[in-house]
Amino acid sequence: MGKRDNRVAYINPIAAARARGPVQNSGPTIQDYLSRPRPTWEELKEQLEKKKKGSRALADFEDKMNEKWRKELAKNREKRLGDKERDKKSMDKEDKKDKKEKKKKEKKKSSRHSSSSSSSSSSDSSSSSSSESEDEEEKKSLKKKRKRKKSSARRASDSSEEDSDAESKKRKRIKEERDKDKNEKDRRRKRKAERTYKDSSSESSVESIGEEVLNVSYDF
């Protein structure tokens, strides 16, 4: 049993393409594009005219719509103006009525004054007394209002003074505490200094005694 021959024949791609010959293009060529059918001048004019007709139709439609809108606006304006005129007429009528009523009231008042002129002397005294009583009441009410304002102001000042007193007391307490702390610290420092001084003096006395004992022993 021999080995199989797995070798493949090598084909030059360039030589194979040359052997096949020129490739036929499936799409249109440049010559086809240049030789395409073109419209004549008359046909082009007809197309332009058709386009213009279409734009004219659209313009006519817009004009019609504008006319409709104008008519609606005119109707609305007429309605609004009619409503305003009605309101004005109604207001004028009301004003005339009010004026007539005022005139009637003035006439009645004048007639009453003329009838009451005879008894004016007696009514003057009563009116003066009533006016005086009203003045007194007004004065009393004003005095009460002033007293209330003064009392409220005093209360506010008292509250502010109390607040200031409380703050001053707090500050005094803080200062006293700080002074106490400083005094205690100074005392501690003095005690430490005294202790160190005593210790140093005791050490120096012990050293002097030891030197004296040594001197005495050498003398013997």
UniProtKB/TrEMBL annotation:
<protein>
    <submittedName>
        <fullName>Protein FAM133 isoform X1</fullName>
    </submittedName>
</protein>
<feature type="compositionally biased region" description="Basic residues">
    <location>
        <begin position="141"/>
        <end position="153"/>
    </location>
</feature>
<dbReference type="InterPro" id="IPR026766">
    <property type="entry name" value="Fam133"/>
</dbReference>
<feature type="compositionally biased region" description="Basic residues">
    <location>
        <begin position="99"/>
        <end position="112"/>
    </location>
</feature>
<feature type="compositionally biased region" description="Low complexity">
    <location>
        <begin position="202"/>
        <end position="212"/>
    </location>
</feature>
<feature type="compositionally biased region" description="Low complexity">
    <location>
        <begin position="113"/>
        <end position="131"/>
    </location>
</feature>
<feature type="compositionally biased region" description="Basic and acidic residues">
    <location>
        <begin position="59"/>
        <end position="98"/>
    </location>
</feature>
<feature type="compositionally biased region" description="Basic and acidic residues">
    <location>
        <begin position="174"/>
        <end position="186"/>
    </location>
</feature>
<feature type="region of interest" description="Disordered">
    <location>
        <begin position="45"/>
        <end position="220"/>
    </location>
</feature>
<feature type="region of interest" description="Disordered">
    <location>
        <begin position="19"/>
        <end position="38"/>
    </location>
</feature>
<comment type="similarity">
    <text>Belongs to the FAM133 family.</text>
</comment>
